[in-house]
Amino acid sequence: MSEHTIRGRVAVVGVGETTYYRRGESPDPEFVLVLKAVLNACEDAGIDSRTIDGFCSYSNDRNMPARLANALGLPELRYSVMQWGSGGGGAAAAIGNAAAAVTAGYADCVVAYRGLAQGQYGRFGSGARTNAVSGPPAFTVPYGVMSPAQIYAMRTTRLYHDHDISPDTLKAVAMAAYHHAQRNPRAVMQGRPLDAETYDQARWITEPFRLYDCCLENDGAAAVIVMSADRARDVTDLPVYPLSIQQGGPHRSGATVHNEPDYVTSSFKTTAPRLYAQAGVGPGDVDVVQSYENFTGAVVMSLIEHGLCTYESANEVLTFDNLIAPDGGLPLNTSGGNLAECYMHGLGLQIEAIRQIRGTSTNQVPGASVALANAGPMVEVASTALYGTEEALG
Amino acid sequence: MTTEPYLAPGLAAPRPARDGLDEPYWTGTREHRLRVQRCRDCDTYQWGPEWMCHNCQSFAIGWVEVDGRGRIYSWQRPHHPVHPALSDQGPYIVVLVELPEAGDIRMVGNLLGDPLQEVRIGAEVEAVFEDHDDDEPPYTLVQWQLVSPPA
Q1: A122 CB near a chain B CB, below 8 Å?
Q2: Is the ipTM of this complex over 0.95?
Q3: Which residues of B touch A131 (CB under 8 A)?
Q4: Contact B74 A155 (CB under 8 A)
């Protein structure tokens, strides 16, 4: 085993979520949601919340660690880290930063968290109400390119063109998510099944994305607690081991005005090989996949870039029957994900991967020992994680 | 060539960045010239604007005028109005245009003509200037139209 790794050194000991609400319907302010998620994670782990000594978040979360530590009356705050990068690209990376801190000895019990109350703070899916724009947005906003769907749609158009990918793959991703949500009591879309006809007849948001190709927007909060593997075995019967967590972007992924040299990508072509190398497993070892859906087209690219299918096989592999638990060959987004469980900026997908390793998903894949969960496809800095059982550590 | 505004009024207006980085572009469009960045040391084209050449790390970034011929690299057709100004707009076409004469750099704009037309990746387009003279300060956008409109 490499000296430089989190593998075998750290474990997830607890996960916590608030009730997931429709956008704007949280009765609590965002900060209270985060506190509740943190306390729920502590209860899940069976630890005193005053054990926490570090916090990691992403996407410029508004709920700062010092305020959380103050509210919770923590004895000491030893680690306080924000992951740079836009959107949900930091969901796995925040857990990775927590794992790195524990491995390095900077802190002993670190929480990765995200809170969103869009009623309180406004939503993502509408253009900013400003009179003027400058810098890179000045080259896109005046042409009606403002929302995340509009910013990322043209990658999928080009994906279809370059690789003969069928739009049916996007439909299968959406339908699998809604199918799984029906069995998940946390899911805001439980009780709202999606059939092929409803998908096909849904309105366009922006071609090539229909309504059900786009993530939800929600209120809520989620938290994941990371401790050393040694301490984890003392506090929980269900430690889950991050086998590897990687973050980054390929060459010039930060180019502006859609000038990334490799345009048709989910941004995982460089991180996925590093992910598998450090984890000591390959795509064939992955039992279940949580693949961040900002938009379904990105999921198709992410699965290909993680080696779970190829450009040539995608149309055959990405079918509804093959994507659903427990019997599909590639069970995908088994909580309902960002499309149908909740859009907690992807932290819910990380938690679902952890649940699959614990064996406690509402759409459990029998015997799952390796779960993949990626975050923020197509953004400049994305991240991706593999979780495993103690046996998976080998 | 010029065109009337493609989208309904009310979207945020572009302003040159305060640090001056993209000022030659916005000054140029007012004169109906399309200028892009090109490194004076290694001749690499670059877009969007940056202070350094991504190829050779030179700060000697210059601006050159290009003739505004390109081809459609990708496209989308937004339907959902994400801004109040677009509530009565209906569908519109956004194109990502690559400029073969300038190192295949890409620009975002609208494709003029029928908003419901079929769009073909690879189709040749040319730049058209859309003046907003009555805005304060005035500005000019660059739009795209097919070189050979469909029969």
Answers
A1: no
A2: yes
A3: 12-13
A4: yes
Q: Find which of B25, B37, B104, B108 to mutate to test the A interface (most A CBs within 10 Å of its CB).
A: B108
Domain that holds residue A271: 10-122+214-393
SS3 state of residue A375? strand
Residue A296 lies inside a defined structural domain of this protein: yes
Domain spans in chain B, listed from the N-terminal domain onward: 23-146
CATH code for the domain of A310: 3.40.47.10
The answer to whether the Cβ–Cβ distance between A143 and B76 falls below 8 Å is no
Return the bridge partners of A222, or none.
A17, A114
End-to-end CA distance of chain B: 21
Is A82 within a domain?
A: yes
Which of B45, B50, B82 has the most A C-beta neighbours within 10 Å, making it the best mutation to test the interface with A? Answer: B82
Q: Which amino acid is at A124?
A: F
Give the Cα separation of A311 and B74 in Å (integer).
19
Residues of A carrying an active site annotation: 292, 343
HSE (side-chain half, CA atoms, 13 Å) at A148: 22
Tell if the CB–CB gap between B48 and A147 is shorter than 8 Å.
no
Asked if A132 lies within 8 A of B14 by C-beta distance, the reply is yes
Q: What is the three-class DSSP state of A60?
A: coil
Is the Cβ of A144 closer than 8 Å to some Cβ of chain B? yes
Residues in chain B: 151
Structural domain count, chain A: 1
- Please report residues of B whose CB lies closer than 8 A to that of A295: none
Q: Chain A window 148-187: which residues touch B at a Cβ cutoff of 8 Å? A: 149-150, 153-155, 157-158, 161
* pLDDT 10s digits, B85-139: 999 999 999 999 999 999 999 999 999 999 999 999 999 999 999 999 999 999 9
Residues B70 and B75: their CA atoms lie apart, in Å, by 14
| CA–CA dist A292, A312 (Å, integer) | 22
**Residue A388 placed within a domain:** yes
pLDDT tens, position by position, B23-45: 999 999 999 999 999 999 999 99
Give the DSSP H/E element, type plus range, for residue B140. Answer: strand B139-146
Q: In this predicted model, what pLDDT tens digit does every residue of A93-149 receive, in sequence order? A: 999 999 999 999 999 999 999 999 988 887 777 766 778 999 999 999 999 999 999
Residues 251-310 of A with CB under 8 A from B: 252, 255-259, 263
Answer yes or no: is A34 within a domain: yes
| Burial class, A120, CB count within 10 angstroms (exposed 0-12 / middle 13-18 / buried 19+) | middle
